[in-house]
Amino acid sequence: MPRAGLTTSKVVEQAARLADELGWQNLSLAVLAERCGVKQPSLYKHIASLEALRIEVSALALRELGAAMTGAVLGKAGRDALVAMAAAYRDYAQQHPGRYAATVAAPSGEHLGQSQAAADVLRVVEATLAGYGLTGDDAVDAARALRAALHGFVHLEAHHGFGLPTDVDRSYRRLVAGIDATMTSWADEQAAS
């Protein structure tokens, strides 16, 4: 019999909290069971395996990230939308490092909720890039470049990869300004062709 009040969503939420506290790679069923106040076999009433749990946490994190990015860009376009989206992205990564790590791998397509949440994040990015006039393959290239730049920065920041005394916030603002200039340039090239 499962512990009274313990549900799959509560198990997933506890796992997400643990990922933030301990790191995504350190999430384990043994630690989760202890946190939930149950024996590890009791978790299997709510989750099939550690891998299934990781996918559920990924889906949760993608939904949260998508909601944060959507809220940030609402009513904005072009540079304003890009700046707001980039700020929301970085804020989420800073506030939820374990959950953020769960968003990095592309969904396998085996979990509908995870795939839908990832698609929602992509729609926010596509809408932001559409503000630059980028469509088709150019939008795909832009989305990949944007993700690589933002992820690279927040990953390095999270792992103490910036040792110079220059203000990291300033560096992030300049990175986003550089992305804005690049997207504007790509849009101009697309329009000229």
Tell me what you see in this structure:
The protein has 193 residues and is an all-alpha fold. The chain has a domain at 59-192: Tetracycline Repressor, domain 2 (Orthogonal Bundle). The protein has 9 helices and no strands. Helix 5 (78-95) runs antiparallel to helix 7 (112-130) and helix 7 packs across helix 8 (136-158). It starts with 7 loop residues before the first helix and ends with a helix. 31% of the residues are buried. The model has no long low-confidence stretch (mean pLDDT 94).
Shape: elongated
Q: Main β-sheet: number of strands, strand sense, barrel status?
A: none
- Measure the end-to-end span: 65 Å
Number of strands: 0
Poorly predicted spans: none
Can you say what the CATH homologous superfamily of the domain at 59-192 is? Tetracycline Repressor, domain 2
The CATH architecture of the domain at 59-192 comes to: Orthogonal Bundle
CATH topology of the domain at 59-192: Tetracycline Repressor, domain 2
Features:
single chain; 193 residues; 73% helix; mainly alpha; Tetracycline Repressor, domain 2
Short description:
With 193 residues, the protein is mainly alpha-helical. It has helices at 8-22, 29-36, 40-43, 50-73, 78-95, 97-101, 112-130, 136-158, 168-192.
